[in-house]
Amino acid sequence: MVIVAVLCLPTKVGGWGHIFGAAETHMKTISPVTHKPTGVFIPTTGNSQLAFSTLALGSALALMVYPHAVTGVLSTKRRDIIKRNMALLPLYSIMLGFIALLGYVALADKVTAANVKKAGNPQLAVPYLFQHLFPSWFTGIAFAAIIIGAPAPAAAVLGSEVSRGD
Q1: Which of 2, 94, 128, 159 is the most exposed place for a label (fewest CB within 10 A)?
Q2: Partners of 37 in the β-ladder
């Protein structure tokens, strides 16, 4: 679902150039509340870019020791399964990055951006995006995937905490 969204949605809103242009415009917009650009969370100086990039790299490398990964390792019966899963784990990080790109696509789509602003909840950006730009049957599949996939990491972490006795 994520791959289909990342490949199809940019063509519906004008391409990646338009998407990143809209994101740049949005982040330079001055907030009437804080009187600062809305994109202040993006590192702009050399020191903050280094800090942000090392944080991102460290987080990607630490993915191998997150509780849900360790639980999977402890529950396997064969060594080759652990090797395969650890080799594929970086692809999971890449998919998370693709999901983050969908937020930029939502900024570029005027109807989705207006709906999110009206709702006052930016967490609805991707569901509104799917609802507006995909046919209803695919939107249903995407929403089902979100509902099925969202609790899985939390359940795995909870399982590791319960197994430790926490």
Answers
A1: 94
A2: 30
- Where exactly are the structural domains of the chain? 2-161
List pLDDT tens digits, range 43-89: 556 677 777 778 878 877 777 677 666 766 777 788 888 788 778 87
Look up the pTM and report it.
0.68
Query: Rounded CA gap, 84 and 24, in Å?
Result: 39
pLDDT, tens digit (0-9, with 9 covering 90-100), for 106-144:
888 888 888 888 888 888 888 899 999 999 999 999 999
CA-CA distance, 40 to 56, in Å (whole number)?
Answer: 17
φ, ψ of residue 110 to 5 degrees: the values are: -60, -40
- Contact predicate 69/81, CB 8 Å: no
CA distance 98 to 1: 11
